[in-house]
Amino acid sequence: MKDIPDASWEKLSQKKIYFGHQSVGYNIIDGIKDLMKENPKIKLNIVETKDVNGIKGGFLAHSTVGKNTDPKSKIDDFNKNKWVCTLLKYPLYIVVEIGI
């Protein structure tokens, strides 16, 4: 972490990212918050919401999607929102960088 240049953390903080998840996702968000406490140069605007339209600047938005143990329901729930994005789909969670 200490070898990552400040400019890289700044660039990350300007991204518009959505993270759709279920229960394990909260553990991931908690881990990110712990890293931020240990590394003050990491400044992410973490917001729990499905509606990212009103958020100004960069963000890491997150919310629950679908049902636990049902990966297809997560993808279907995510797709209902019709976000314009670059999409990476995983069985446990969905991570998106929003192209707006």
Give the overall average pLDDT. Answer: 80
Approximate shape: globular
Instruction: State the domain count.
Output: 1
H/E element order: HEHEEHEE
Major sheet: 5 strands, mixed
* Fraction of residues in β-strands: 25-35%
Order of adjacent strands in the largest pleated sheet: 2-3-1-5-4
- Work out the radius of gyration: 14 Å
Number of helices: 3
Strand tally:
5
Low-confidence stretches: 84-93
Please state the structural category: alpha/beta
Distance between the termini: 29 Å
* Helical residues, percent: 25-40%
Describe the structure.
- With 100 residues, the chain is α/β, with parallel strands linked by helices.
- The chain has one domain.
- Helix content is 34%, strand content 26%.
- It contains 3 helices and 5 strands, in the order αβαββαββ.
- The longest helix is centred in the N-terminal third of the chain and has 16 residues.
- It starts with 5 loop residues before the first helix and ends with a strand.
